[in-house]
Design goal:
The chain has 21 helices and 24 strands. By secondary structure, the chain is an alpha+beta fold. Among the domains are: 9-200, Histidine kinase-like ATPase, C-terminal domain (Heat Shock Protein 90, 2-Layer Sandwich); 219-328, Ribosomal Protein S5, domain 2, CATH 3.30.230.10; 460-507 and 512-551, MutL, C-terminal domain, regulatory subdomain (Ribosomal Protein S8, Chain: A, domain 1). α6 (163-180) runs antiparallel to α7.
């Protein structure tokens, strides 16, 4: 067994960096927190190539003397704690004293700082080794530059994602702290381009308008409630204003941006009757409570928090949000962000209905092996002529199913009726089949759209009146980089001023009333790095999955011809048994199971 030894400070710092500095966004987070703790009223963040090659954070805070600058590079050096009991009184963002030395150990690190009085200091460290310390002339404040991140630990660099993904994390981080501190001016620059520049704001609503756009800010409701030891304030979306991801559910505890399952689920539960399934609310909520009632030291990067009384906090948040929603009232006008119930203006082109699968296209697809083996099909008979009566239409659909893949003879399904609007019931030789209409439609649309996207054959329709859309500066930058990609998929968007766009054409399958929400959902996928046009196959699959959910508009009633048409189209798919999200499209209760249930 090798002898035991004490790790050098350099190696210990590099190991600590793996816990605290997971990616470039973590560097930005730690440096911005230091700037805010230093009382900065102006912070500028610049980065290049997703932050892996260059990060600069500059502020006009209190700055440091030479001695403090050098001391800040030592592990566990902090001005915010003296003893363990101080953890119950934390009122600052940073306190662990590990971030700066950890960053300096895995990068080329330059620290330039100057207090309000006295000379400035420049400290340069490369991979944990001190290069030089000297005086520097600069305005009061601190400028920290981090370049060649993780070059000294290549194994860590391999785990970084694409520049697009890393950039999205940095953008989200800066946006969170800009919301947490409206009185501080923020500027964010990526690869020489200003993504957003927000002056100091007097209210949270003003900062939200600066970051997200005034159109969304107008669709938010104020939340304000206080109980013993708890206070919740902020803004939430009106009923109907929703997103496809949780990206805009932003939570803060004592001004600290956090990821809390307790708060997230409380918010989602509050909107249970206000939003469609699979949609998430928009919210910027600030929870203030006694620092002793929350543990902010659960995670090395301080992302997660733990409440002393989870149930109390959860119940309080639900009551506060429900009160704000009730005060808004169900009869009031919904915001522009809600397009689900919007009416299409006269003259707007209507989306094409779900077309039944034609026999030639069906015949061009190979029979499934199990169908061929079961039925011994050698040829497909021609369908009967178009029928003009309902009974003839039903027989026509049955014939299409049989001709398509022998599905009726194989499964023996006979339509019985519908249940609860979403389900179709069939009698089968082996029992009873329940079909989820929405899941089935999503599978049909998904494979159809996936094929169109892959072939670049997406038909679009121009709108009679272009739809204006206001986006936040970050979303605008993401969209501008991908306009050609969206146009190739049938969605034509034109720039119409700073952070303003116009939707001029939509795919034929998309209801124009859903165009804005669809565009915002796409931007949500971009922010999460799930819609990278450089990876065309994955991007097409993600977009098709989102589009399929948008394309489905189920009629309230279902007749036999429609039910049989859906079965025909479903069994034409490559994977008819599940929806794009992995949910089953149908299941069968066998005769034996039915007999057991009735104790026969």
């Amino acid at each position: 067994m090798p002898s035991i030894r004490i790790l050098s400070d350099r190696v210990a710092n590099q190991i600590a960096a793996g816990e605290v500095i997971e990616r470039p966004a973590a560097v930005v987070k730690e440096l911005v927190e230091n700037s805010l703790d230093a009382g900065a009223t102006r912070i500028e963040v610049e980065f290049r190539h997703g932050g892996r090659s260059y990060i600069r954070v500059e502020d006009n805070g209190s700055g440091m003397t030479k001695d403090d600058a050098l001391l800040s590079l030592e592990r566990h050096a902090t001005s915010k704690l003296v003893e363990t009991a101080d953890l119950d009184r934390i009122g600052t963002f940073g306190f662990r004293g590990e971030a700066v030395p950890s960053i300096a150990s895995v990068s080329h690190f330059e620290l330039q700082t100057r207090p309000a009085t006295g000379p400035g200091t420049e400290v340069v460290i490369n991979g944990g080794k001190l290069v030089h310390v000297r005086e520097a002339g600069l305005a009061p404040g601190t400028r920290t530059t981090v370049s060649h991140l993780f070059n000294s630990v290549p194994a860590r660099r391999k785990f970084l994602k694409s520049d697009t993904t890393e950039s999205a994390h940095i953008i989200q981080t800066v946006r969170l702290y800009a919301l947490a501190c409206p009185a501080t001016a923020f500027t964010l620059v990526e690869d020489g381009r200003v993504l957003f520049q927000s002056p100091a704001c007097t209210t949270l609503a003003d900062r939200v308008a600066e970051i997200f756009g005034r159109q969304l800010a107008a669709d938010l409701l104020p939340v304000e409630m206080a109980e013993t030891g708890l206070k919740l304030s902020g803004l939430i979306g009106k009923p109907g204003v929703s997103r496809a991801t949780r990206h805009e559910m932003l939570m803060f505890v004592n001004r600290r941006p956090v990821d809390s399952r307790t708060l997230n689920y409380a918010l989602i539960e509050s909107y249970a009757t206000s939003l469609a399934k699979g949609r998430y609310p928009v919210a910027v909520l600030f929870l203030d409570l006694d620092p002793a009632a929350v543990d902010v030291n659960v995670h090395p990067a301080k992302r997660e928090v733990r409440f002393r009384s989870e149930g109390t906090v959860r119940g309080f948040v639900i009551r506060a949000v429900l009160q704000a929603l009730r005060e808004f009232g169900p009869g009031r006008e919904q915001g522009a962000g809600s397009r689900e119930a919007a009416e299409v203006m006269p003259g707007d082109p209507r989306p094409a209905p779900l077309e039944p699968i034609s026999v030639p296209s069906a015949m061009s697809q190979p029979f499934r092996p199990f169908i061929r083996a079961s039925l011994g099909i050698e040829h497909v008979p021609k369908p009967p002529a178009a029928a003009s009566t309902p009974a003839a239409a039903i027989e026509n659909q049955k014939s299409k199913i049989e001709n398509h893949a022998g599905a009726t003879r194989l499964l023996g399904w006979r339509f019985l009726g519908s249940a609860h609007g979403d389900y179709a019931l069939f009698e089968a030789p082996g029992g009873v089949v329940v079909l989820d209409r929405r899941a089935a439609h999503e599978r049909v649309w998904f494979e159809r759209l996936q094929d169109q996207f892959a072939r670049g054959a997406v038909a679009s329709q121009r709108l009679l009146f272009a739809q204006p859309v206001e986006l936040d500066a970050i979303a605008s930058a993401l969209l501008l980089d991908r306009l050609a990609f969206l146009q190739a998929h049938g969605l034509e968007v034109g720039e119409f001023g700073r952070n303003f766009f116009r939707i001029e054409a939509v795919p034929v399958w998309l209801d124009p009333a859903d165009a804005e929400m669809f565009l915002r959902d796409i931007i949500g996928l971009m922010r999460e790095g799930r819609l990278d046009e450089k990876k065309a196959g994955l991007a097409n699959e993600e977009l098709a999955r989102l589009a399929a959910a948008k394309a489905v508009r189920l009629p309230s009633s279902l007749n036999e011809a429609e039910a049989l048409a859906l079965v025909a189209q479903l069994f034409a798919c490559n994977q008819p048994h599940t929806s794009p999200a992995g949910r089953p499209t149908h299941f069968e209760l066998g005769k034996a199971e039915l007999a057991r249930r009735f104790q026969r």
